[in-house]
Design brief:
By secondary structure, the protein is mainly alpha-helical. It has a domain at 10-110. The chain has 2 helices and no strands. It is rod-shaped, with a radius of gyration of 34 Å. The two termini are 27 Å apart.
């Protein structure tokens, strides 16, 4: 009996490649989100530093009003950038969900073909075993007859 050959092997390789590509795409979104999170933390730290500067500037003694106005404008700019980062992270979160779902579907397609290959391989082995048993029975029968 010929060796087992899975006729859909090329389709399985294609689906594995697709799954790998989707995994890379998901990783890219995770990296982008991590970078945005890092930027957001830097902005938060800068806002805290600016708040401390404002507290010391508005402390006892002469108040440096132009510096406070400038700090308030800078804080407003930082908050605007922080809002933009939050919106971008929300968009990435939505993209992450889509890419994760896409990866799950690709993995499911791969598993389906792998299961089919396993089932066909098992059936092929069983057929080989059945034919081998049949040959052995025939050989034993020939031995008994002679």
């Amino acid at each position: 009996m010929p060796k087992f050959h899975f006729r859909l092997a090329s389709l399985l390789r294609l689906r594995e490649t697709t799954s790998d590509e989707r995994r890379v795409q998901l990783a890219e979104v995770h990296r982008a989100d991590a970078e945005l999170e890092h930027q957001q933390k830097r902005l938060e730290a800068e806002l805290q530093r600016l708040l401390q500067v404002c507290r010391t500037t508005a402390g006892p003694g002469a108040v440096d009003l132009p510096r406070l106005v400038e700090a308030d404008q800078y804080a407003s700019t930082l908050r605007t950038r922080e809002g933009e980062l939050q919106r971008r992270r929300q968009a990435l979160a939505a993209e992450m969900v889509l890419r994760r779902q896409s990866l799950l579907e690709a993995d499911r397609d791969v598993r389906t073909l792998e299961k089919l290959r396993e089932n066909q391989s098992r059936a092929h082995r069983q057929e080989e075993d059945r034919q081998e048993g049949k040959r052995l029975d025939e050989a034993a029968l020939q031995t008994v007859r002679t």
